[in-house]
Protein 1
Amino acid sequence: MRTIHRVLCSALLLGATSTVSTAQIKSFTLEEMVQTADQAIYGQIIGSRVFRVDSPVDGEGLYFTTITIQGRTLADGRAMTVDVTFRGGFLSETDGVFNSEAPAAQDVKPGRKVVAFYRWTDDIGGGVGTNALMAAHGGLYRTVEGPRGPAVLGRGEGFAITTNRLVGQLESAVKLLSATKKR
């Protein structure tokens, strides 16, 4: 009986780990992020809105959040205002959907200063074409004011910005990487 129990548990564990291992989140170096993104912006979130579209496949509601960022591009310092969208959000307390890959709510509040990497996508779901946030929450970084100027908060291994650095330093790195970008 013990042998059957061990074999059954081992089979279940093997099945569970093989299922989990097929789902992977892409990690990016800064170079990979710059090469893949259309643009990176440093600025302030000046607006946020959630919208719903019906899925053409099953009619279920798909929820998206769009944040409007006003600032400057990191590649060339141009002033810009851009809408960036990600999956998930709530129209009301009961009408919406949570997405574990979305940025944290406190990271996308209007007034927050951020660095965001984004790329145009013809269809992020439900036929919605938009500037999509790169790597879900991995494409958005909080910034803070410091004695030497604004700094972007690194997110650790596997994220494009692994350690805290001054926004000016990040801007220099992005400019250099953008100059060698494959078109």
Protein 2
Amino acid sequence: MCNTEELLAKNEINGVDLEHLLSERKNQRAEFFLVDVREEYEYNQKRIVGGDYLIPLSNFFNKVQDIETLKSKHIIITCKLGGRSSQAQTQLRSLGFEKVINLSGGISNYKGEII
């Protein structure tokens, strides 16, 4: 496993990496925001503990202003399998967000704490 700084510098991380980063954030050794781009009904059924924002990809451009102040912060994007989060990553970068990381495999590949 990489250290926290190396993980936050990546373009894509896996579920184990996210578990590590969430633990580090809980212990105030990492700063990032976790954004879920699934639909609200999916989010309500199952979500990663520690998520900060729900911005469904279907309404992304209307809701992205909710995180406008985070342009220079680390943002990890998640969805169900990794496809929508990859699209959101590309869109955020085109809007000037600098440090956007995709969760490879999405919530389906995440074995950490879920509610």
Protein 3
Amino acid sequence: MGFAGIGRLGVRESMGNQSNEPDKVHNPHETRAKALFSNKEAFISLLRDCVKAEWMDELDVDSLRKVNVQFILQDFSKKEADIIYEARLNNGSGKVVFYIHAELQSSVDYRMPYRLLLYMVEILRHHYNNSDEKARQGKDFRFPAVVPIVYFSGSQEWTVPTELREMFDGHERFGESLLNFRYALVDTKGYDDESVKNFNSKLLKVMLMFENAKSAAGLVEVLQKYRSEIALLNEEEIRILNVVTDILDIIYGSGEGKKALSAIRSGSKEVSGVLSDLIQNERERERQFISQGVKQGVKQGVKQGVKQGVKQGVRQEKLNTAKALLGLGDSVEKIMLATGLPKEKIEEVRKQMNAKP
């Protein structure tokens, strides 16, 4: 029994999505990840080229299918980009479920092993509840193997333990007695032109380079560099690339990515010049933006400096007044009224005066 069926409370599901349309969500980063991994070939390439799993040759890739089930947990329901695939092994002996969590926040989350555990338990619970009641009571009943994968595109270094048991106190002492699993980490920062050149999926290759673009100009440079691969993408892959390019244009506040992709798809002989112009225009826009930011920063800094200087001058004037009044023998209470300084500060000034030879 797979994931088809009536979902329980906390689960939303459907199995009829054969159009491979990316899930519609409000978070643009989540949409980007779901769009990429709605493509079966990109997901297979992720397993082969990024996870590099030893058991890939045992997987029946023809049986691999994306399952549109979203498990809703109270603590993390607004933070997930969940992609689930299921497949059978070549010998037909069992089933494997892949749970891909796209971690698209800029910072790392040290709760990740625990979060993955919660979702893995929900996957197993769902499988159990949708299995034949008599079959699940028999000795031959088996759960599917659940393989967790974290796809991380944040800027920080990923320093989260990749094994669940490292979250337990005394895990070194108790070893295999503790509940444990290891998740596969795909950190997009670890990929460059050289490391992706032999990837099976051209779409995954371009998308990984998108993650490291960091600007509109960088986005167009990626499109320029990989335009020969883009020209070979099929209709579904181009649709996904269009979705992702539009999202990145919104994030970067530019429409240059869409223009670049349109130029590549047009097959025009002038495409190289068009792309170079787009990059140059975007770099100039970035320089102007930085220049304006520097000017604004200097202006604000001067203004803040004047305010700070005035504040310090007023404070020093109060201290000088307190010192003069102390020299005249005025009481602390009178000086407090005259200067607005607290008693402790006036006593400090008195001690400094008495300490001088």
